[in-house]
Amino acid sequence: MTVQISDTGKIRTLALNRPERLNAFDIRLVADLGVALRNSAEDADVSVVVLTGTGRAFSSGADLKEVAERVAHPVSPREAKSAAFVELIDTLAEFPKPLIMAVNGLGVGFGMTILGFADLVFMSSEARLKCPFTAIGAPPEAASSYLLPMLLGRQNAAWALLSSEWISAAEAREIGLVWKVCEPADLLATAHRHAEILADKPQQILGTVKRLLNAPHREQIAAAAARENQAMAELLGTGANAEALTAFLRR
Questions:
Q1: What is d(CA 3, CA 96) in angstroms, rounded to the nearest whole number?
Q2: Which long-range contacts (CB under 8 A, 24 or more apart) does 175-181 make?
Q3: Where is the chain membrane-spanning (predicted)?
Q4: Residues forming beta bridges with residue 15, ordered by sequence position
């Protein structure tokens, strides 16, 4: 089971569950998270969703081993991963209920850019984030070329996307990517305490407010994701990206 699902009252917790791979997103995890989110959206008994990770990572991003093997063997279903990822981004962008993310450990690549779709982000004081795209010869993804400048401001987003440097929990809060930083042992309890406050409100009004918050950004998110997908199709397996994937497989 790549996504653990548990319900407490009206709160559903989804935990990414590939701890042996630092919760890296392979085809199955991408698809399973999409299904879990869509089922949560349709479940009338769920008012708020909390997303976190198992083990010592929130998510290490795309499973580079799988990506490298697909590039090396083009007969593999590259299109399936692309389609599943596009569907997951659409699901996140259209998610109709409050979505809280609790970053329990390192978040790399998609493990950081997915935070752009959260309504509230809580982060362990010991966790770190990184967008390593320039280090592996890849473009941004998950509409982060739009969401990060909107959330963080142009220069903070430029540093995050261009530098491939680590961002601490304190820095993430300072630039506006994270709402609250918690001691590791208090992270989930704090996230759930705030989720309970939201879940106590009528689900209809929660959905209305969420829809109004998202409405100004839907077209821009879709357009940014399309541009990024085109750039990924052009760069994947070529130049610096090919070198990075080859080096990863050798390790």
A1: 20
A2: 176/151, 176/152, 177/115, 177/121, 177/129, 177/148, 177/151, 177/152, 178/103, 178/115, 178/121, 178/122, 178/123, 179/120, 179/121, 179/122, 180/120, 180/121, 180/122, 180/123, 181/122, 181/123, 181/124, 181/125
A3: 99-122
A4: 4, 52
What is the average pLDDT across 84-104? 97
DSSP element (H, E) containing 240: helix 239-250
Distance CA 38, CA 32 (A): 10
Q: Identify the architecture of domain 3-185+217-250 in CATH.
A: Alpha-Beta Complex (3.90)
Comparing C-alpha atoms, which of 11, 172, 171 is closest to residue 100?
11
Residue appearing with tokens 């903070």:
156
Q: What is the DSSP string of 144-180?
A: HHHHHHHHH-HHHHHHHHHH---EEHHHHHHTTS-SE
The β-bridge partners of 101 are 51, 121
Percent helix / strand / coil, the chain, rounded to 5: 55, 20, 25
**pLDDT tens per residue, range 161-214:** 999 999 999 999 999 999 999 999 999 999 999 999 999 999 999 999 999 999
Q: Is 245 exposed, middle or buried (0-12, 13-18, 19+ CB in 10 A)?
A: buried
Q: DSSP 3-state assignment of 53?
A: strand
CA distance 229 to 225: 6
- pLDDT digits 0-9 by tens, 170-181: 999 999 999 999
Global pTM exceeds 0.85: yes
- H helices present in 115-153, as ranges: 144-152
Beta partners for residue 24, in sequence order: none
